[in-house]
Amino acid sequence: MAIVRWRPFGELEQFRSQMDRLFDDFFGSATESESLTPGFPLVDIKETKDDFVITAEVPGMSKDDIKISLTNNTLTIKGEKKEEKKEDDHNYHRVERRFGSFSRSFTLDAPVEAEKIKAKCKDGILTITLPKKEESKPKEIPISVS
Predict the structure, then answer these.
(1) What's 93's DSSP letter?
(2) In whole angstroms, how large is the CA radius of gyration of the chain?
(3) Are 100 and 35 contacting, i.e. CB atoms less than 8 angstroms apart?
(4) Is-contact 126 41, C-beta < 8 A?
(5) Measured between alpha carbons, how far is 106 from 72 in angstroms, rounded to an integer?
(6) What are the strands of the beta sheet with 66-71, ordered from one edge?
(7) I need a labelling partner for 121 at 20 to 30 A (CA). Which of 23, 24, 44, 110 fits?
(8) Strand partners of residue 70
(9) pLDDT of 93-126, one tens digit each?
């Protein structure tokens, strides 16, 4: 007799997988009008004593495809990844790259100098540097000896 691991939701997972496949076959998979998956672009947020640095992966996009705004200490990155023209005389075996618009917002936990924000895009990496306001920077308090 073989020992089989009990998976209480195994049948439910199989059913969902089959339903997903059925809907993909009937309605088609991602189209150019569909927006990119949630969580695009992927970002890293780093905080130093002087600023916040947000690094985002935006492969295949130019600086003109991306808009950055700051409102009430919420940074928003919006953009659109445009689809390349497909040629009709080619047979595609697989199309996995996604195209469409995206929007990501991040609330910063300290006020920043909006006029001093810098953004650069190089080799598919967007880097945004947001300098903190002077009053939000940590201050070292000297201890006197008496």
Answers:
(1) S
(2) 23
(3) yes
(4) yes
(5) 11
(6) 66-71, 74-81, 100-107
(7) 110
(8) 75
(9) 777 777 788 889 989 888 999 999 999 999 999 9
* pLDDT value at residue 11: 75
Note the pLDDT tens digit of each residue in 77-96: 999 888 777 667 777 777 77
In angstroms, the CA 47 to CA 49 distance is: 7
Q: Maximum CA pair distance of the chain? A: 86
Q: CB-side exposure of 18: number of CA atoms within 13 Å?
A: 6
pLDDT higher than threshold 90 for residue 1: no
Reported in sequence order, the residue ranges of the chain that DSSP labels E, i.e. its strands, are 43-47, 51-57, 66-71, 74-81, 100-107, 118-122, 125-131
Measured CA to CA, the distance from residue 38 to residue 44 in angstroms comes to: 15
Quick one: tokens of 22? 């059925």
pLDDT at residue 86, rounded to an integer: 67
Using CB atoms within 10 A of its CB, is residue 54 exposed (0-12), middle (13-18) or buried (19+)? buried
| Contact between 34 and 100 (Cβ < 8 Å) | yes
